[in-house]
Amino acid sequence: MNSIEQQIKETLQQIPFSDNGGNVLDAEVVYSLELSGETANVMLVIGKEYQSIREETIKKIEAGLKTVDGISDVTMKVVGSKSEIETQQKQNAGANPAPPEQANYLQEYENVILIASGKGGVGKSTVAINLALALKEMGKKVSVLDADVYGPSIPIMLGKRNEPLQVVGQQVKPLNQYGIDFMSVGNMVKEDQALIWRGPMAHQVIQQMLRDAAWPGGDYMIIDLPPGTGDVQLSVAQMTEATGAVIVCTPQDVALLDARKAIAMFNKVNIPVLGMIENMSAFVCPKCGAETPIFAKGGTERESTDQNIAYIGGIPIEMDIRLGSDNGDPIVHASPNSASAKVFKEIAVRLDQIVTEAN
Asked: Which of 179, 239, 283, 358 has a beta carbon 3.0–4.6 Å from 292's, enabling a disulfide?
């Protein structure tokens, strides 16, 4: 069965809007949609020029969403333009308006490292969390920000799923696991709660996690970005003074094509790419230890040479790496003397050397 997010998307795409064959999703009528239990809270933007179909559109969206499995009630707020939403957000801010977009949060950290990938499914979050734990084992003080607002996985990997964040005074206190402070949208909403956000909403969430969290500071802040080159990446680039980015990629050509896009994006926003990591470099047989290059091998290293970017290391496909992530005990912590854990530690040492030289 399709996920509830996919069901919502397909339902909205079937609701027409305007005479040109468009639908309410593509026409950006649905500004945001958030699920709370079985209730869908929807924000709609319908301009004055569409007043003749306003009520009909609202009814169709409500009726359509109620056909989705898991949604029994729909609440809606309708505005005439996106500027009305922005005005309301400023009013809600009251005496504490949000800082301008060009900000410099996380100054309490000596280094802010962005873990990025051109596409999903390359194991970026697994690399991010094990790299953070490896840096901690080197004696570094490390925090992690899960900036993948649409698919947060860090709470699962750290064994803290469904544990809510706590507000202390005017700030949100990050969670701590295995000696690492971390924060994720996954600890702000329920796992079955779908988030369908336009760019401005995602930007606001990232800003809140950067601005309103009681980050303790330290040597490294590791930010796990969502895949691709979208709004969240640009928001983080605007709101932090990142030391640099690390690109995680698998060896095959289709992944390398997307990695090049990520590199080009960081070049445009003047964030140096510190290095590339090849994940799923080869399958290691748990019985005999033989390597099989399922997705080829060495493609990322060749690409890093072509791009004149440091190659930091290659991580094999190994059962224990996957099990550690699924069980909430990453391999660097669960099996610190394993071959795969040693690979992560070697990568952490190389990254620290690159950062030291860059500073």
From this structure: 283
